[in-house]
Every structure is written in C-alpha cells, then in structure tokens.
Amino acid sequence: MAKKSSIEKNKRREKLAKQYAGRRSRLKAIANDESLSMEERFTARLKLSELPRNSAKERVRNRCEVTGRPRAVYRKLKMSRIALRELGSKGLVPGLVKSSW
C-alpha cells in the first residue's frame, strides 16, 4: 500500500489538471501558432508558465485504484498487476481466469 500522502497529492494533481485543462490548451495553441507575432506567442508562454506546475497533466502519475501502487499499472483497468492477480484469483474480476498447470 502506498503512502496516503502520495495518493492524496496525486488526487490534487488530477483535480488541478482537470481545472486548468482548457486554459492550458488555449495558451499552448497560441504559443505554438506560427502565424501570430513573436510577442503574442511569448506572452502566451509567460502566462502558461504562471499557471501552477501541478496543473500539467504530465505530472499526474498512473496509480492503482486498489493499492495506490505507482508501477505496473494497467491503464484499462487502473489496477496494478499484483492487485489484478489477487482479485482474479478470488474471482472478483469478470472474464479473468487465472491459468494454472
């Protein structure tokens, strides 16, 4: 189980990323548009840098929904390989059959 503080920090980052997503995308579009003048693009970059760092979606870490483990997480299931195996062995994941021979 991961530290509670790490899990909560990641939740705050997800919330901030969702909150600032529209603003960031507009500023990035302006900053990367080469048809605009250099000054307009530069001011967009400055405004982009004034936004909180944790509002960038790249800073959000994929974590297991069950245990909070940061590594070996399946995106589709949002679950780590260890939690998936445990729940699969108990028969709690529909359609998953653990092979044994």
UniProtKB/TrEMBL annotation:
<dbReference type="InterPro" id="IPR018271">
    <property type="entry name" value="Ribosomal_uS14_CS"/>
</dbReference>
<protein>
    <recommendedName>
        <fullName>Small ribosomal subunit protein uS14</fullName>
    </recommendedName>
</protein>
<dbReference type="Pfam" id="PF00253">
    <property type="entry name" value="Ribosomal_S14"/>
</dbReference>
<dbReference type="GO" id="GO:0015935">
    <property type="term" value="C:small ribosomal subunit"/>
</dbReference>
<feature type="compositionally biased region" description="Basic and acidic residues">
    <location>
        <begin position="1"/>
        <end position="11"/>
    </location>
</feature>
<comment type="similarity">
    <text>Belongs to the universal ribosomal protein uS14 family.</text>
</comment>
<dbReference type="GO" id="GO:0003735">
    <property type="term" value="F:structural constituent of ribosome"/>
</dbReference>
<keyword id="KW-0699">rRNA-binding</keyword>
<dbReference type="GO" id="GO:0019843">
    <property type="term" value="F:rRNA binding"/>
</dbReference>
<keyword id="KW-0687">Ribonucleoprotein</keyword>
<keyword id="KW-0689">Ribosomal protein</keyword>
<keyword id="KW-0694">RNA-binding</keyword>
<dbReference type="InterPro" id="IPR001209">
    <property type="entry name" value="Ribosomal_uS14"/>
</dbReference>
<comment type="subunit">
    <text>Part of the 30S ribosomal subunit. Contacts proteins S3 and S10.</text>
</comment>
<dbReference type="InterPro" id="IPR023036">
    <property type="entry name" value="Ribosomal_uS14_bac/plastid"/>
</dbReference>
<comment type="function">
    <text>Binds 16S rRNA, required for the assembly of 30S particles and may also be responsible for determining the conformation of the 16S rRNA at the A site.</text>
</comment>
<dbReference type="GO" id="GO:0005737">
    <property type="term" value="C:cytoplasm"/>
</dbReference>
<dbReference type="GO" id="GO:0006412">
    <property type="term" value="P:translation"/>
</dbReference>
<feature type="region of interest" description="Disordered">
    <location>
        <begin position="1"/>
        <end position="20"/>
    </location>
</feature>
